[in-house]
Task: inverse folding
């Protein structure tokens, strides 16, 4: 089977609306890039959340209303319809978090098993207890439930399957499938049952954190009466089930290495799915400033604790980022005092001021700060070269500057120049409030001359395709001017450049 690059999860879930964003974010963070989620008789808004997320993320959502053995039906549907469209598909539940214990991603961990003779991998549980929570705590499950059972806890010997794409398998059971080439664990030990009672679990490569009971409140009010997705209708878990699985002996923190990336994904998802609602104000800046640039937000380093955002407008990014990082100190600066006033509800401090005319004493008061953000902002300044130099001279050696800058070398600008149609507009590359214009080359010059080095960065493009004749002309002009034609073509397709910079 030809490789697709997709590492998928198929999951049947019921009334996990409160936790579904964290679950999706975590699995995106560890490398999964396709989700098939079956909402079984949900009535808590989970399906609606997923349908909204599906507009922006690789999620397919299905409603399932059957009573008896819905899990097997969901797994059959997922494999029959999508099994040949993925490289691997994991079958896990909404209270299970699957991740590589050492590798950087699931792709990296699974690559070692590509040449092995097997149809599926069996991954062992690590069962987590209530962690002493009588009621549902605020915060992420990853953080509020750090303690789990010992390896010797017998239910840890349950496995869940990661099936190789294109294999002839039958999901006859919820844990273990009937396969052509067999199921093996990470040590290539044969897996013959969904619960390997006589096989000690191994967690060197993969692990499933199974948050079985969560809080006492969640178990007795929600999970106990939820039934069993792999059983007939009417099944009710016993009170003793809670006591059996409420195991909190150890805390190893293995999964927490994905915590910051998970929080970044949550912030990204939250910003995309729940646009900021603010009072109607006259638009005096680029309309894009009223949305969250999730790509730029993703460049905020995990260690950042004091952030200054210049051009914060209504505080959309401050709101989104602080929802996932409540301990962050966030300062918003906007030239419009009205915008700064709205942003104040999401920031620790706001300034309705022009960063270029800020008194020296007030500028110094913004330090110590370890991350400065200029999202579609530098092009609006009279002297952006001076501002990035001032930040460089004042910031700590381990601080950073983030920037998103429109590209004046984009093909649409070149086309307008060539036809004499260079007209200012209300937004976009020809925004009439832009004072300065930059190309990739001059952006890099501005930063390096101010004492910054590029640590990370990437480009953003728009889906509109340029005319091929135009691109051929751009190559010709570049080469006629003694420049690299291929580089000119690449630069002409970029709408914006994003940078994370550190002191050189």
Result:
């Amino acid at each position: 089977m030809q490789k697709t690059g997709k590492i998928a999860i198929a999951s049947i879930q019921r009334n996990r609306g409160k936790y579904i964003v964290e679950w999706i974010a975590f699995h995106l963070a560890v490398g999964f890039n396709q989700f098939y989620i079956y909402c079984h008789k949900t009535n808590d808004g989970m399906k609606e959340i997923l349908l909204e997320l599906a507009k922006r993320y690789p999620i397919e959502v299905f409603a399932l209303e059957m009573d008896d053995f819905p899990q097997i039906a969901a797994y059959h549907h997922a494999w029959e319809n999508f099994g040949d469209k993925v490289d691997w598909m994991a079958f896990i539940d909404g209270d299970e978090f699957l991740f590589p214990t050492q590798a950087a991603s699931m792709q990296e961990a699974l690559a070692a098993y590509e040449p092995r003779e097997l149809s599926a991998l069996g991954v062992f549980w690590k069962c987590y207890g209530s962690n002493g929570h009588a009621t549902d705590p605020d915060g992420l499950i990853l953080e509020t439930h750090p303690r789990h059972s010992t390896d010797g806890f017998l239910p840890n010997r349950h496995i869940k399957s990661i099936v190789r794409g294109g294999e002839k398998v039958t999901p006859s059971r919820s844990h273990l499938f009937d396969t052509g080439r067999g199921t093996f664990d990470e040590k290539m030990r044969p897996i013959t049952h969904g619960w390997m009672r006589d096989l000690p679990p191994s967690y060197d490569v993969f692990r499933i954190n199974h948050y079985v009971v969560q809080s006492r409140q969640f178990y007795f009010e929600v999970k106990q009466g939820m039934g069993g997705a792999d059983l007939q209708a009417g099944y009710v878990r016993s009170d003793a089930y809670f006591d059996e699985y409420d195991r909190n002996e150890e805390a190893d923190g293995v999964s927490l290495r994905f915590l910051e990336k998970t929080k970044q994904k949550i912030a990204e998802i939250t910003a995309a799915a729940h646009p900021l609602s603010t009072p109607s104000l006259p638009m005096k800046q680029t309309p894009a400033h009223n949305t969250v640039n999730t790509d730029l937000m993703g460049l905020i380093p995990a260690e950042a604790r004091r952030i200054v955002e210049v051009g914060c407008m209504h505080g959309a990014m401050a709101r989104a980022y602080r929802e996932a990082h409540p301990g962050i100190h966030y300062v918003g600066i906007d030239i419009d005092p009205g915008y700064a006033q709205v942003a104040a509800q999401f920031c620790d401090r706001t300034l309705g001021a022009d960063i270029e005319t800020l008194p020296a004493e007030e500028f110094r008061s913004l330090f110590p700060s370890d991350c400065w953000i200029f999202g579609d902002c530098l092009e609006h300044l009279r002297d952006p070269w001076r501002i990035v130099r001032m930040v460089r001279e004042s910031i700590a050696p381990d601080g950073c500057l983030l920037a998103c800058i429109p590209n004046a070398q984009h093909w649409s600008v070149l086309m307008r120049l060539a036809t004499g149609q260079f007209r200012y507009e209300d937004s976009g590359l020809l925004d009439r409030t832009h004072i300065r214009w930059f190309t990739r080359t001059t952006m890099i010059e501005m930063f390096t001359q101010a004492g910054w080095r590029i640590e990370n960065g990437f480009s953003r493009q728009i889906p509109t395709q340029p005319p091929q004749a135009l691109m051929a002309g751009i190559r010709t002009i570049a080469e006629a001017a003694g420049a690299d034609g291929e580089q000119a073509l690449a630069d002409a397709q970029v709408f914006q450049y994003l940078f994370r910079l550190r002191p050189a």
Summary: Confidence is low (pLDDT under 50) at residues 274-290. The longest strand covers residues 120-128. The first helix runs from residue 20 to 29.
